[in-house]
Every structure is written in structure tokens, then in C-alpha cells.
Design a protein that fits this description.
Length: 154
């Protein structure tokens, strides 16, 4: 079940490293869209990814268009955003779905929000509205393991 985990302009190397390790562990592909705020060879990324970096299926895309245009079924691209209208557990996930996460500071830009149907914008509930967002690597893990749970029950 090779999900696509998509990070838009990630900013914090340890988050990307943790996500890369998760991707290897669950056999997901990692897509990085646009330029990250750090070098991918940076020690912090590799340290967080431990010895799994060489097993990572990593795809680098120069822009959102370069990532999004070639996807045949764009309805299977889900934005994980606090602006989502659907709870992430309310979607019936399928193999090869893509989960798109914005960067740690500013999330996803409007043009990416405008490229998908509102039903493809999912949120993870926060009980305390004073908390701006979850840690990026935690959010990725929550959504990915829900998708795995659903697919293993089928």
C-alpha cells in the first residue's frame, strides 16, 4: 500500500527525518514539493532518519504543478489542513492515496487549496483552540496509520 506523503516546503530537518523514517517503515513514498528550507543531506535529516535514508523512496518536485499535474486521479489527493471540512477518519482511504502537508510555519498556500475540491481537505481535531497546530511529523503519523488501519480491515 504505497501511500504518497507529500511535504510542501518543509522547514525543520528533524521533522522531515522522522517522516522519512515513517515512510520507510510503512512503505510509503515521500514527495517533497518545492525547495525545502534546508539541504536534504544535512546531518539533522539523516540523524532523524537513522540508517533508513538509503531505503527511502524519495521524489523531489520543483513545484506543485510538477507534482500535481501527472496524477491521474486527482480526487485521491488529500490536503491535511486546519481549514478542512472533513474529519480525516471520515474518508475511506485507498491504496496510492496522497496526503499533502504544509510547512511548519505557514501551511499550504491558497493556490494549493484551490487545486482540490473542498471535500479533499481533511482536518485532525484539536480540543484546545489555542494550539495552532500539531507537530508535522505527528500529524503525518496520525493520518497514515488511520489509512493503514482502514485498509487492513478490508
Amino acid at each position: 500500500m504505497p501511500f504518497g506523503i507529500v511535504l510542501f516546503r518543509p522547514e525543520i530537518p528533524p521533522n522531515t527525518g522522522n517522516i522519512s523514517r515513517l515512510c520507510v517503515g510503512v512503505r510509503a513514498n515521500l514527495h517533497i514539493v518545492d525547495k525545502p528550507a534546508f539541504e536534504l543531506s544535512q546531518k539533522a535529516v539523516r540523524r532523524a532518519g537513522l540508517d533508513h535514508w538509503d531505503k527511502l523512496k524519495l521524489f523531489l518536485h520543483a513545484s506543485w504543478e510538477d507534482f500535481f499535474f501527472p496524477i491521474a486521479d486527482k480526487s485521491r489527493v488529500f490536503l491535511i489542513t486546519k481549514f478542512g471540512k472533513n474529519l480525516y477518519t471520515d474518508i475511506a482511504f485507498k491504496e496510492n492515496d496522497y496526503f499533502v502537508f504544509g510547512n511548519e510555519t505557514s501551511g499550504l498556500p491558497e493556490y494549493i487549496h484551490n487545486s482540490v475540491d473542498p471535500s479533499q481537505k481533511l482536518f485532525i481535531p484539536m480540543l484546545d483552540p489555542s494550539v495552532r497546530s500539531l507537530n508535522l511529523s505527528n500529524a503525518v503519523a496520525i493520518v497514515v496509520y488511520e489509512a493503514i488501519r482502514q485498509l487492513q480491515l478490508k
